[in-house]
Amino acid sequence: MTRNTDLDNLHPVVRQKVKTLIDKLAHENIPLRLFEGYRNPERQHQLFSQGRTSPGPRVTKADAWQSYHQYGVACDFVLYIDGKWSWNTGPKFKKYWARYHELGAEVGLKPISWEKPHLELQNLNLQELVMGNYPEGGDESWSENLSSNILQWTKGPTPPPPRLLFNRPELPSDEIDEEITPPIGITPHIHSIVQTGSTYRVTARNGLYMRAGPGTDFDILGTLLANRSVVVTKKSGQWYQVDLQNDGLVDGYCHSGFLVRVI
Ligand SMILES: [Zn+2]
Asked: Is the pLDDT of residue 190 over 70?
């Protein structure tokens, strides 16, 4: 679980603030650098487990989806001195952290009392984020990253994917019903004849991954578009085996969180 400093995964409003903050820090020769921006729920959960169910000191109060980092609206800057990261808040470095917080406030990022490196977008409420009420102005790079993390999270409930409407060209009418087929060269190795089951509809606005097996460790075979129907042939925990053509042949597996039964 590596940390992520890709500014494109941040919400555009925060991305701009972080860029400005980086410039301001550099301008004043303050040795703080972006250490982490977007943090996926897997890494958040791992950090939360530390000091609770796994060894080590406690490092966060937030479990998966309980930190602003999972929504791309927070960042952590850490001292970077002589080629090394440092969390030192001793007297020698106090002025740097204080100035970092001042400059953060200037761009509209607020600190939290128990964690010096952390700044987050002000005037937000975690409960709103959990319900999918994201800040306005989201763009595709932020949304796609958040959506894919939501779709891949299988250890508990997730917030809904962002609802963004992008200007995409209308499909020619004869292609609208075209099936999503696995990329050339990847053949699902699980073709077998099974009893035809119930029809379900994909409810993930940004599409649902279909995988080669029941879990996120399996290869992604393709993405099923929102509202398309699939036949569920077997249930395997939270994962459903699906048949896309209703021909009795298995095409792959999808997470059940974004499938609702229609027939
Ligand atoms: Zn943080």
From this structure: no
